[in-house]
Automatic annotation (TrEMBL):
Signal peptide coordinates: 1-24
Source organism (scientific name): Streptomyces mirabilis
EC number: 3.2.1.26
Ranges for region Disordered: 28-50
Class of enzymatic activity (EC top level): hydrolase
Protein name: beta-fructofuranosidase
Coiled-coil residue spans: none
Sequence ranges assigned to domain LamG-like jellyroll fold in this UniProt record: 111-261
InterPro entries, per the entry: ConA-like_dom_sf, GH32_Enzymes, Glyco_hydro_32, Glyco_hydro_32_C, Glyco_hydro_32_N, Glyco_hydro_beta-prop_sf, LamG-like
Family: Belongs to the glycosyl hydrolase 32 family.
Keyword tags: Disulfide bond, Glycosidase, Hydrolase, Signal
Length: 977
């Protein structure tokens, strides 16, 4: 793990045309075939450690690209290996693991050749851009040369071979896929005598295709890649798609042709040589130890074993166990290819991972994603799952579906196995009446289901609009559509909208409601009242700065006969004071509590997600209730206290000054803090957490008694300029004369609960190892500490918690490049070399570009408004303008590592930011954008040039679309005179 690493910038290209040919019987050979010979290249993946795998024929050590080869937030780690069919196997993680080799060895493709490997897929990619997941390839789709062995949607095995004029593809039979969770032997052969490509699965022919009467052409100029497509689609400017996920063993490239008999015999011989004459079961479980030492990854909150999650949903209790499901992309820490992850618990705070519950499947209601939903117990058959099925073939791509567990047959209360029903539960047809307009049929998702008095109720998030043909002409607001039934399978009867927000009067809940939740509210003693809480997440069709930041609620009455909700207040209230609590789900526990789950968005950039290997986690489940004054009560569930370990502080009846003295030796990044304070005449009371000894990093939780405002100040929470540091808060009255505070601190995760009425969920990302201190202060008077307790918290999973790892400090005896972050608001310190594209008007504080998402420019204490250089200026020619901008000339010092933020067009020859040696004008390093406006940080290790005079040059010689470049936060360690 190093503080700065040189990051490669990789472009993506769209593949060439592919000619698919139908399955056909193998024709007789026109001449004698050459049987497969000894491999020209073979990878056994038998290494137990290290970042290379050895190609057995040449003995070459081929590098394994892996996200933690040079980790950003944790100690470095080796690629994952597991037991293989024979020996060891390499685990490909779906987004970062790739083996790069020189080529297939001494191979004459004109004489025929064979590729074969053992694979155990973990998941199927959705065929992004129509490209296969590559198992092994060395091809150029544009030139129609080279070869690829891979998988298409739902595990269909394919083989492509280029002949210069055609790229021929043979597809395996769709009912003969490489099955998830088991070993499959795949073999592809080119038979020049028969002019045929053939595919074999476990020794049996599954597909053929006819080839031209000419020799194939290898793509010798391309690298041979194992696990990643030669021309992958780039997602979000950061992630390579079309990658394999799962185990691979014994990959071989052999001269010669495999026929049906040889394929059968070779496979039979392999099985006969295995212990017990059977293929072992692959171990595809995700081990959390992969993230040990990650300084930001929460330890006592629920989160997946790896990669991306969004909202947890469908909480349900059955036979002594709580189950939670969650939106999950198994391919990497990015949005897409949505599955349902699953975890089980006996107390809602200690969790065990279960297999993926739902996955997109062909000929199902969800071929293009299994989106959010809910769960409810259906008598003896146990819980049933209601989910949103994505199907891009439909005019309205969303509908709800049903899944059942195997519990009735296997009795397993962990509920590890689920089956989706083939028919949808509910759909939104065009012109479905909804209040003042019709339901927005394109937005029909997130069913929330419960049963009461023999009636099943289903709320589905949507919006209310007017249509003119297929165009939306007016948007009224978001809603939850109600259906009822007597059994989960239906038939379901539409009952109209539960409630809706008028955008002209109440715009906050958005144009569409996502994740509507309706729960009964128990009173202070736990008894049920006549009131319910309705929670929603707002959604807008176009970019909105408030998207994915808020959860709103109403308290009111549910008329179950009319299927309508009558709120007690017109304006919705914000559930949480931070900007990270979103995606609510909920249920009623066996003891009558209404419990809400949520997702805590981590607000990191795509690049940070890629470097970390995970994204987001669940919030602590909270109990909601109706207080005596009719307001909402919000507190973490009582079970959270069972995570407590050693008590670190027990302070009673003392002054704030004395309490702060007692906290001097208390520190940690996994803490539960409870405090009761009498403000008396103090105007502000502040609890400081994650504080470094020198105060350069600290996060403030403050209560202002004059404004009744509780807030978080993250302006100094991190020295990392790429971390969001905004402040948030809200109004909350004292509990009588006291301030009652509960804080759960879990590495980057911070949840604060005040007076049992409000919560504030946020994120902090300190960079210093000692940023673990606690402080308590008051201003304007002397407050009294009634009690203050601090506990160390244990992990939520049955694994030990590794200490957080931090980078060593960088040299401090250096200066900065003048105006390195454009904090002056202009180009002071920079020189216009040529052109018109760069000017003082190019320096902006804009946080987004109008039609899309955030720039994520640097945020520093010196430049709190976030100035940056946006290279697109419509008043100066836009993308067609060109120019060159140059920094001051300085002497490189410190550790010699230069880093900067860059985005914009992708053209390394004409559009780039470069470090240039001043004496001879030599470019020492440069970087371009990735065809997107969101910044990503690149770093150049120029330690070999310490002591040399350098400058930074921003070059725009590109015109047309994306003919601009953006730059910010250029960090050059400058040698002091």
């Amino acid at each position: 793990m190093r503080r700065r690493t040189a990051l490669s910038v990789v472009s993506a290209a769209v593949g060439g045309a592919i000619v698919p040919l139908a399955f056909a019987p193998a024709p007789a050979a026109a001449q004698e075939r050459r049987s497969p010979q000894s491999p020209s290249a073979r990878w056994d993946f038998d290494e137990r450690t290290g970042t290379v795998t050895r190609e057995a024929v040449s003995g070459t050590a081929d590098p394994i690209g892996y996200v933690f080869d040079d980790a950003r937030y944790k100690p470095d780690g080796d690629p994952v290996r597991r037991r293989g069919v024979r020996g060891r196997a390499l685990y490909f993680d779906g987004y970062s693991t790739v083996v790069t080799a020189d080529g297939p060895g001494k191979l004459d493709p004109a004489g025929g050749f064979t590729l074969d490997a053992w694979i155990a897929p973990y998941a199927y990619e959705q065929g992004i851009d129509g490209k296969p997941q590559a198992l092994v390839n060395q091809h150029n789709p544009d030139a129609k040369t080279g070869f690829l062995l891979g998988l298409r949607r739902f595990g269909q095995i394919v083989f492509q071979l280029g002949f210069g004029t055609d790229l021929i593809e043979v597809k395996g039979a769709s009912d003969q896929p490489a099955v998830k969770g088991r070993w499959t032997h795949v073999a592809a052969t080119y038979d020049p005598a028969a002019r045929q490509l053939r595919l074999y699965r476990d020794g049996r022919l599954i597909g053929t295709a006819t080839t031209p009467d000419k020799a194939p052409v290898l793509a010798s100029g391309e690298p041979l890649l194992i696990g990643r497509h030669n021309t992958p689609t780039l997602l979000n400017g950061e992630f390579h798609a079309n990658m394999y996920i799962g185990l691979m063993d014994s990959l071989a490239i052999r001269p010669g042709t495999l026929d049906d008999t040889a394929a059968h015999n070779e496979h039979a011989d392999t099985i006969a040589a295995l212990p017990d004459h059977r293929v072992p079961r692959p171990d595809l479980a995700q081990q959390r130890a992969r993230y040990d030492g990650d300084r930001h990854r929460p330890q006592f909150h629920m989160l997946p074993p790896w990669h991306w999650m969004n909202e947890p949903h469908a909480p349900v209790y059955f036979k002594g166990k709580y189950h939670i499901f969650y939106q999950h992309d198994p391919f990497g820490p990015y949005w897409g290819q949505i599955h349902w992850g699953h975890a089980v618990s006996t107390d809602m705070v200690h969790w065990r991972d279960q297999p993926i519950a739902l996955a997109p499947a062909a000929d199902s209601v969800a071929p293009d994603g299994c989106w959010s939903g809910s769960a409810h117990v259906d008598g003896d058959r146990g819980p049933v799952l209601f989910f949103t099925g994505g199907d891009d073939r439909l005019p309205y791509r969303q509908r709800t579906g049903l899944a059942v567990s195997s519990y009735p047959t296997d009795g397993d209360t962990d509920l590890p196995t689920w089956t989706m029903k083939s028919e949808p539960v509910t759909e939104a047809p065009a012109a479905l009446p909804a209040g003042p307009g019709t339901a927005w049929a394109e937005n029909f998702r997130d069913p929330f289901v419960w049963e009461e008095d023999g009636v099943w109720y289903q709320l589905t998030g949507s919006g209310i609009v007017d249509y003119d043909g297929t165009q939306v002409t007016k948007k009224y607001g978001g809603t939850a559509l109600v259906h009822t039934a007597r059994r989960p399978e239906g038939p379901w009867t539409y009952q109209g909208p539960l409630h809706w927000n008028d955008l002209t009067k109440v715009p906050e809940p958005g144009e569409v409601w996502e994740l509507p939740v309706l729960l009964p509210l128990p009173g202070p003693t736990g008894k049920r009242t006549s009131k319910h809480i309705l929670l929603v997440s707002p959604w807008w069709e176009t970019f909105n700065s408030n998207a994915v930041k808020h959860t709103y609620y109403w308290i009111g009455t549910f008329d179950k006969d009319a299927c309508r909700f009558v709120p007690d207040h017109e304006k919705p209230r914000e559930f949480d004071f931070g900007e990270h609590f979103t995606g609510p789900s909920g249920f009623v526990t066996p003891d009558g509590r209404s419990v809400v789950f949520s997702i805590t968005q981590d607000r990191r950039s795509e690049q940070q997600h890629a470097q970390a290997g995970w994204a987001h986690n669940a919030g602590m489940p909270v109990s909601v209730s109706l207080r005596q004054d009719g307001t909402l009560g919000v507190e973490p569930i009582t079970e959270a206290a069972t995570l407590r370990g050693r008590r670190l502080a027990k302070i009673r009846q003392t002054s704030v000054k004395d309490a702060n003295r007692q906290l001097a030796d208390v520190s940690g990044d996994l803490l539960d803090i409870e405090a009761v304070i009498e403000p008396r005449d103090a105007t502000t009371i502040t609890l400081t957490v994650r504080a470094s000894d020198d105060g350069s990093e600290q996060t403030l939780l403050s209560y202002d008694t004059t404004k009744w405002r509780f807030s978080i100040d993250r302006s100094r929470s991190s020295l990392d300029p790429d971390v969001r540091k905004s402040a948030h808060g809200g109004t909350v009255e004292l509990d009588g004369s006291r301030l009652t505070l509960r804080v759960l601190l879990d590495r980057s995760m911070l949840e604060a609960y005040i007076n049992g009425t409000n919560s504030l969920t946020s994120r902090v990302y300190p960079t210093q190892k000692d940023a673990t201190g606690l402080r308590l202060t008051s201003e304007g008077g002397a407050a009294r500490v009634v009690s203050l307790d601090v506990w160390h918290m244990n992990g939520a999973y049955d694994t030990s918690v590794a200490p957080a790892a931090y980078d060593p400090p960088r040299p401090t005896d250096v200066d900065a490049l003048p105006n390195h972050d454009f904090a002056t608001g202009d180009l002071t310190g920079w020189t216009f070399v040529s052109g018109t594209t760069f000017s003082d008007a190019s320096v902006t504080t804009r946080t987004d570009w109008g039609w899309g998402g955030p720039f994520y420019q640097a945020e520093t204490e010196e430049d709190a408004t976030g100035h940056h250089l946006w290279g697109y200026n419509p008043d100066a020619g836009g993308d067609d303008a060109v120019g060159v901008l140059r920094s001051a000339t300085v002497t490189l010092g410190g550790d010699g590592v230069v880093d900067l933020l860059v985005s914009g067009g992708n053209d390394l020859d004409r559009l780039y930011a470069a470090v240039v040696r001043a004496d001879d004008g030599k470019v020492l390093a440069k970087a371009t954008g990735r065809g997107g406006e969101q910044y990503r940080r690149v770093a150049f290790d120029l330690s070999a040039h310490i002591g040399e005079r350098i400058y930074v040059e921003v070059v725009d010689k590109a015109t047309g679309g994306w003919g601009h470049i953006n730059v910010d936060d250029v960090n050059v360690p400058v040698q002091r005179p």
